[in-house]
Amino acid sequence: MNDAAEQGHGDLKRSLSNRHIQLIALGGAIGTGLFMGSGKSISLAGPSILFVYMIIGAMLFFVMRAMGELLLSNLEYKSFIDFATDLLGPWAGFFTGWTYWLCWVVTGIADVIAVSAYAQFWFPDAPQWLPALLCVGLLLSLNLITVKLFGEIEFWFAMIKLVAIAGLVAVGAHLLVSSGTLSASHGARLDNLWNDGGMFPHGWMGFFAGFQISIFAFVGIELVGTAAAETRNPRVTLPRAINSIPVRIIIFYVFALATIMVVTPWREVVADKSPFVELFLIAGLPAAAAWINFVVLSSAASSANSGVFSTSRMLFGLALEGDAPRAFQRLSKRAVPSNGLLFSCACLLLGAMLIYLIPNLMQAFTLITTLSALLFMFVWSIILLSYLAYRKSRPALHQASGYKMPGGRLMCWVTLAFFAGVLVLLTLKDDTRQALYLAPGWFVLLGLAYRVTLNRRTLHLR
User: pLDDT tens per residue, the chain (462 residues)?
Assistant: First the structure.
């Protein structure tokens, strides 16, 4: 592999260090869904939600390992758009790039609205649109400066999440080893995990229902692959970041949820409240509400920041392939795709303003998050299909790889079958079924756009 590939590609600079990429991967693996969505998932599945998170985490680990082997097989690949185009064909790059762009725009809209809602805690009289505007404006300004600043922002956002979860586990452990009785209605006991209906109190249907909510918490886990083109020494940093995912899932998801259910019996967890807040309140910490509100706000801002970063890089890659307007190819003097940043931020703001017009905000959020999860599962599936094509067409590269995917082809098919199963589960409830009706419309639109693009290229060649 040539030195140019090691140093950079397409004039994007490799400015992200190992410290940045580790925390970007961590931030991607811990979403707002853990802080705000865990209450609903616990109420649906009971203690079996621990198995749900472990299963989803395991499946996505194989997606990440497949992506890691592909990215390191050719350092000319800037992201999964490139290897999808190379291994599956131009259609795959077009569909994957634009779908991933929409993934983060849709997720970013939800995050920006969430930031506005959390800001009301401190500024109840401020208009709702003002925090959304300030959030997008701030993230745009910071991302225009340099990619290294993006890495720094994500580093500290991820640190806030890490400290919050570590604090939760520490407080829970303290309550467990202390007197054990907090009040007449609360007792921190280890057997709270199984003494009320067992680990599967709602049976298999409750267990399966947990997947519908929990899959949302993992969107963004592949962000480390989007940052590959701007990572220093990717042969070292990418494997480290990917290999640590199982440990993160156990510590930051399983331990946190187990702590919540040890301190608060699962039947007492309120679906529409953050169980993090409730646990700190039980512990008698008066500043808990303000602290957790800050954590959740920063988590939403972190996700929006990831969206602003990744959508601009997707547009840059699409433009290089001729699948997006040429204006998105242009980089600023600081090697930042500024036109892509401006366009994505404009879409975020427009989408957020339109969502405010929907009367039932929770219904809109459910629709947005379900649609987002569907689109992300499409992208994850394309990564796996690219890996299968790579194993078939590039056997020598696979043999030479120092970072082979464990399980190979078999685990690719197992993971694809898992995603198909999740799609079936999303049909079980009305609120998630609506997103299933919307998703095909996006792919029909993409198909028409791809046809126009092909026709334009044919005319140009003539």
Answer: 444 333 334 454 554 555 555 566 566 556 666 666 677 788 888 899 999 988 998 899 899 899 989 988 887 887 788 889 899 998 998 998 899 888 888 888 877 877 877 787 787 777 777 887 888 888 888 777 766 666 677 777 778 877 877 877 887 887 777 754 444 345 677 877 888 888 898 888 888 888 877 887 787 777 766 555 556 677 777 787 788 777 777 777 888 888 888 887 888 777 666 677 667 766 666 666 677 778 878 877 877 777 787 788 778 878 877 788 888 877 777 777 888 888 888 888 887 776 666 656 566 667 777 888 888 899 999 999 999 999 999 999 989 888 899 998 999 999 999 999 998 888 877 777 877 888 888 999 999 988 888 877 666 555
Q: State the helix-helix crossing angle for 408-425 and 49-73, rounded to 10 degrees.
A: 130
Cα 298 from Cα 24, distance rounded (Å): 14
Q: Is 67 exposed, middle or buried (CB count within 10 Å of its CB: 0-12, 13-18, 19+)? A: buried
The enclosing H or E element of 139 equals: helix 129-145
In the chain the domains, ranked by start, together with CATH numbers, are 15-461 (1.20.1740.10)
- Whole-model pTM? 0.82
Supply 141's token pair.
């300004």
Q: Is-contact 55 419, C-beta < 8 A?
A: no
Q: Which two tokens stand for residue 163?
A: 């400290």
